[in-house]
Amino acid sequence: MPRNIKLVNPLPSEVLDLPATNKHHWLLHSEPSGSQYWSYYDNPPREQTPYEKYVLGLDPGTQTYDTPPASPDVAIDRALTYFAQFQQPNGMWSCQYGGPMFLIPGQVIALYATKSPIPKEWAIEMTRYLVNLAHPIDGGWGLHFTDKSTVFGTVLNYIALRILGLPASHPVMKKARHTMAKLGGPLKCPQWGKFWMCVLNVYSWDGMDPIPPEFWLLPYWLPIHPGRWWVHTRAVYLPMSYCYGARIAAPVDDLITELRTELYPDMVYDNIDFAKYKDALSSVDAYYPPTGVLKLANKFLSFWETYLMPKKLKEKALKEVKRQIDLEDLNSDYLDIGPVNNVMNFLISYYVEGPDSVSYKRHYERLANFNYMTREGMMMTGTDGVQVWDTSFTIQTIVGAGLAESEKFGPVVRNAYNFLKNAQFVSNAHPDSYREGRLGCWGFSTRTQGYTVSDCTAEALKAVIMIQSLDSFNKSESIDETLLNSAIDVLLSLQNVGRFAFGSFASYEPIRATPLMEYMNSATVFGNIMVEYPYVECTDSVVIGLCNFRRVSSYRSDEVNRAINNACQYILSAQRPDGSWVGAWAVCFTYAHMFATEALSNIGRTYESDDQVRKGCDFLVTQQMEDGGWGENFRACELCEYVPTAESHCVQTAWAMISLLYAQYPDKEPLEKAAKLLMDKQDRYGGWPYEEVEGVFNRTCTIEYPNYKFYFPVKALSMYRKAWL
């Protein structure tokens, strides 16, 4: 596993003396909507903020402390004082939501294939980032920045670095080519990697398994209709199928010719029979190998495409796919659901509508919303940010600590509340775009991105209700009651009440098709991606949000109560025999337990009154480490088994504490030890150190939530103080 790059000094790019921009010249801009982007200035128009300095690895210039905090009160005040200075002018908190190592290559390849300019500062800093994140031993790249080297990561990032200007003769590139060959070479790249190589014209579409656009013409009642798939999968499959159907490929030039030689050093590119390598896959990339069902389907689809498919049907399918792409763009003002389909839609806008089109120009502008400057260089975020999610939990933390009406933190909370008001959806998506309702709801990041997320809506709803319930709250600033009621309408519509995981909630939508569709997963590097799945954490959050809502409103009370009861039954049924809950969106058991016990505490189930809550607490306490903390490795998400780390981590310690405190765990000793650990680990600025990547998605890919280490320890300490001091 690569070393913790956050702690490496000097960075590899500095050792190699690679070009770098002046970190003092980067500024972060945040719009009222929450959209954010970094700009580089020869003569910056203002001083950098503490947050900009912090994320760039500079001294933030904030107050420091020479002695550890003497009490939880002191630790809480220091932490919130520090974190409040990171708040953006629009009321949100920003963060470097990074980890996946397949994002930069997609953007860079799309820019090159569309002959679009890559800003000089982007090229310099993306090069630094990729070099700094290379595996310290073999020089390759993995699926994510803490992964082993894979063909997928190594091939795509090698290509990206060549486009960005690093010569093939550079030691970084020589080392990467050696690892690439050792792992099996580009012919054994997974489907997503082969897709981008086809777009760049360094691999042939003949060597791709089918990505038929005709699926979009099937009757919607069929489970294989893409409109029934998980929203991220269908959003990516949509432009992929267009590129495949239209055989989009960049024109050959000198660099592409050079890359063909570098990628296949022992072969003549024009003589390669790419069709023979459709199913070729390196073992290091086979997280979820193709099933027999998928292989059989691919053979049938290849035969259909070659011998049976009418030309007019293909044209009709491509027309419908382009219509759906246009709707995705319009529903999100060209941000799209995330950076993967964003750059694919950008690519298609160039090849179909041309560089003078509104679509192409707006897409090009939007690329900056995913590019984020850090100490290690310019990375890409997993969405256009985490704004709503982070802001909701920060509000909850400050209100829960009893500080929301204080002179010091009251303005912080009011500013954050205004951001949530601006982030709430005030319209629905286009009715033909296979989307659920969103009016009154919240997404993960911004109003503009436009995708309702069940737990984000619920946690934002809780934060809003907490603020609107304060004695000092100005009722004239309340969110329109009809909008909040609309959010409840959507949440109730998202509950799974059919054959699949009754009572549960998934991420974006109810489960629309059988989980057996997973047999058709062609990505190989991700699991549980074909349809929506029930998630304990999402279900927990919705219970929490609905319970907070029913305390202040009688709107649809019978249905709200029924939804809560059914959801809690699902949460209890999801508990394992050993008392544990498995998380899906962060690492891992401690995270799931935090949400589960809060949800159950809202219906009166605590350690004293409920056997299952008691088992959950006992499971957590058995995992406590000698120093009083908890620590989990992200492999727990892959294995669905608790995998401890060598040392405890602040974030997971906070999660475990919060879980035990919501459950009203009766023994003070483990909580006292954990609280002492958090206070001892607080740094001289009032924050906590980065120790391990916090998040995960689709079981295999880690992703950062760097603000977790600010607000969750504060929440844990404030709950401990209230319960025991």
From TrEMBL:
| Gene Ontology cellular component terms for the protein in this record | lipid droplet
Q: Which GO terms describe its biological process?
A: ergosterol biosynthetic process; triterpenoid biosynthetic process
Give yes or no: UniProt keyword Magnesium: no
Please state the Enzyme Commission number of this protein. Answer: 5.4.99.-
CDD domains xref list: SQCY_1
Q: List the GO molecular function terms.
A: lanosterol synthase activity
InterPro entries according to UniProt? SQ_cyclase_C, SQ_cyclase_N, Squalene_cyclase, Terpene_synthase_CS, Terpenoid_cyclase/PrenylTrfase
Which PANTHER family does this UniProt record tie to the protein?
Answer: LANOSTEROL SYNTHASE, TERPENE CYCLASE/MUTASE FAMILY MEMBER
As for family, the record states:
Belongs to the terpene cyclase/mutase family.
Alphabetized NCBIfam families for the sequence: squalene_cyclas
What is this protein identified as? Terpene cyclase/mutase family member
Which organism is the protein's source? Tortispora caseinolytica NRRL Y-17796
